[in-house]
Design goal:
Layout: H1 4-9, E1 14-16, E2 18-21, E3 24-31, H2 47-76, H3 78-91, H4 94-107, H5 111-127, H6 132-152, E4 165-169, H7 174-181, E5 187-190, H8 198-206, E6 210-212, H9 217-220, E7 226-230, E8 235-238, H10 242-263, E9 270-271, E10 277-284, H11 290-296, E11 300-305, H12 307-313, H13 319-333, E12 337-341, H14 367-372, H15 374-386, E13 393-397, H16 403-422, E14 432-437, H17 440-444, H18 446-451, E15 455-458, H19 460-468, H20 486-501, E16 506-508, H21 519-524, E17 529-532, H22 537-544, H23 549-559, H24 565-578
Bound molecules: phosphoenolpyruvate and magnesium ion.
The site of phosphoenolpyruvate has 10 residues, from strand 11 and helix 19.
Length: 588
């Protein structure tokens, strides 16, 4: 039977993007090109009438947004609905409204021109910002502008979109997503936007499969065209062949049947047939994912990528802001644990400085940057500590490559603890401190590093890139990025064995842990804890419950003696067949 990999490898009719919200959908394209409003700059004669017209449009816009805000609160919860509350606040901004009214009086131009011009000024500032978060907010402002202009013309938002449509658009605002979702649309595809765009977050929480960042889907696709959207892998297939259609239809049906079965696993532990329990923790990339974590049956949060806050806020949060964020996460996951990773700034992530490093992945990244920026590091340590009073918070250091970095970090953590004690602020004095093992030097030295920390977590995303000297984000060398390379397996085995020798818990939080094909192998290599995206947890439970640990160990022992990746994959596939494990990997 063909795999996803086989299907995509041979397909010319595919568009690649970012897998923004999971699910598989077969539907018809609806090109959602937002009506480009031609703005009139004509002179007016009756200033008073223009001002009344503006006030009425403003009120109508507020009414619409209040309604959207109410729907949003109902469907997404108060926190995420706050985007609309923020939009409502802009409509109440006395400076903006004052400026518009004054310009209507002074310039005697159509109010729609003045509204467009004034709000565009706000937008321009945001677009020019280096932060992706601010750029995303510029889209939200576009929505407000169009709403007021439309209401100045007394038009209503009309939606004639048939249900079951796959919405394909240049970009979508959160309001678009929410209103379109009421038409029961099947999926969203956008040329722009990343995983952290609000549109992506909202699609995930509304459970509508989505692919974003396709660059040219709006140009390649036509209205009414049949497409398959794969929100698991981030692909769109257009004009699917009969073979592709039946492949995805089968996956889709299988997925529906699986959902019910998976829901029943939520409260059950992940235990192999011969009784070995595996902890399944959640990776949290954006704060908006907490709802999914709660329903996924996770045993806690194994990796909270805190640097995401910088992207979400577009700025470095203050200590107090961080305390609020971490405390909320810690209390939501209580009594389970949350592992907050220190800001992993640099590489392909959030940039703190304008300086363009020639090799950012080998540069001032993770712990290296934090140790150079003690103010930033200390504020984060203090806020993590201040959120730890309930003793369910752990702190993890990224990109550790020397033991000295661990000692220096621990010294700073101790200093922060002393400061907080003298300020009478409560914290967990025994808060566990761990490291990511994602640099080859840390893999070589795991035994010694493990002695001076409380826990370890293997970051295969980076470990593979550094072991194989292959950029994790570069298509041209993707063939070399092999998670089943003997180099990777032997290194993982060494890290696991060395951690156990030191008596320290070890987990694995790279994407490899979420690859269901890799799960029996990782369990066989001795891992008792995996941290994966929350949506994958039910699938992982199902896989783990379908094999014996002792058989997985035998298979893993064999794999690490083998020299070729292809042979290792064959051995794993044979294990799946012999153990009659449904290859859930075919589904996700
Ligand atoms: C990793 O490197 O495997 C990891 C989990 O961290 P990130 O993907 O954030 O670099
Ligand atoms: Mg990493």
């Amino acid at each position: 039977m063909k795999s996803f990999k086989d299907i995509y490898k041979g397909s010319e009719n595919k568009i690649a993007g970012i897998a923004a919200a999971p699910g598989i959908v077969i539907g018809e394209v609806y090109l959602f090109t937002k009506e480009k409003l031609e703005i009139s700059k004509a002179d007016i004669t009756d200033v008073e009438e223009a001002k009344i017209n503006f006030h009425e449009a403003l009120e109508r816009s507020k009414k619409e947004l209040t309604k959207i805000f109410a729907i949003a609160k109902d469907r997404m919860g108060v926190t995420r609905a706050a985007i609309f509350e923020a939009q409502l606040m802009i409509l109440d901004d006395p400076i903006l409204i004052g400026n518009i009214l004054k310009r209507i009086e002074d310039e005697k131009k159509q109010p729609e021109y003045i509204v467009d011009d004034e709000i565009s000024k706000y937008q321009q500032l945001m677009i020019l910002s280096n932060e992706s978060y601010m750029k995303e907010r510029a889209n939200d402002i576009e929505d407000i502008k169009n709403r007021i202009v439309r209401n100045l013309r007394k038009k209503r938002w009309q939606s004639r979109i048939h249900s079951d449509a796959v919405i394909v658009s240049d970009s979508l605002t959160p309001a678009d997503i929410l209103l379109l979702s009421r038409n029961q649309v099947k999926s969203f595809v956008t040329d722009h936007g990343g995983l952290t765009s609000h549109a992506a977050i909202i699609s995930r929480s509304l459970n509508i499969p989505a692919v974003c960042g396709t660059h040219n889907a709006t140009q390649k696709l036509k209205d009414g065209q049949t497409v398959i959207v794969d929100g698991f892998h981030g692909y769109i297939i257009y004009d699917p062949t009969d073979e592709q259609k039946s492949f995805f239809k089968e996956k889709h049906q299988h997925l529906i049947a699986l959902q019910k079965e998976l829901e029943e696993l939520t409260d059950k532990p992940a235990v192999t047939k011969d009784g070995k329990e595996i902890q399944l923790l959640a990776n949290v990339d954006v704060t908006g994912e907490m709802d999914v974590v709660k329903t996924s049956g996770a045993n806690g949060i194994g990796l909270y990528r805190s640097e995401q806050i910088l992207d979400e806020l577009g700025t470095i949060p203050t200590e107090e802001e961080q305390v609020r964020i971490y405390s909320k996460l810690a209390s939501r996951i209580y009594p389970d644990n949350i592992t907050i990773r220190a800001f992993d700034i640099g590489g392909d992530k959030f940039r703190l400085f304008d300086y363009n490093e020639p090799n950012p992945f080998l540069g001032l990244r993770g712990i290296r940057l934090l140790l150079e920026n003690l103010k930033l590091f200390k504020a984060q340590i203090r806020s993590v500590l201040r959120s730890s009073s309930n003793k369910n918070v752990q702190f993890m250091l990224p990109m550790i490559s020397t033991i000295d970095e661990i000692h220096r970090s621990k010294k700073i953590i101790k200093e922060c603890m002393d400061e907080l004690s003298s300020e009478n602020k409560s914290f967990d004095a025994e808060m566990k401190i761990g490291i990511m093992v994602e640099v080859p030097s840390a893999a070589v030295m795991t035994r010694e590093f493990a002695d001076v920390v409380d826990f370890l977590s293997i970051g295969t995303n980076d470990l593979i890139q550094y072991l194989m000297a292959v950029d994790r984000g570069n298509d041209l060398v993707a063939d070399l990025y092999q998670e089943f390379s003997p180099v990777v397996l032997r290194t993982i085995k060494k890290i696991v064995d060395d951690s156990k020798l030191a008596g320290k818990p070890v987990s694995l939080c790279g994407e490899m842990a979420a690859d269901t094909l890799a799960m029996p192998l990782l369990v066989g290599l001795g891992l008792e804890s995996l941290s994966i995206s929350p949506a994958t947890i039910p699938y992982a439970k199902r896989i783990i419950k379908s094999f014996n640990y002792k058989d997985a160990k035998k298979m893993a022992d064999k794999c690490i003696t083998v020299c070729y990746e292809a042979e290792i994959e064959k051995t794993i596939l044979k294990f799946f067949e012999e153990n009659d494990i449904t290859r859930t990997r075919n589904i996700i």
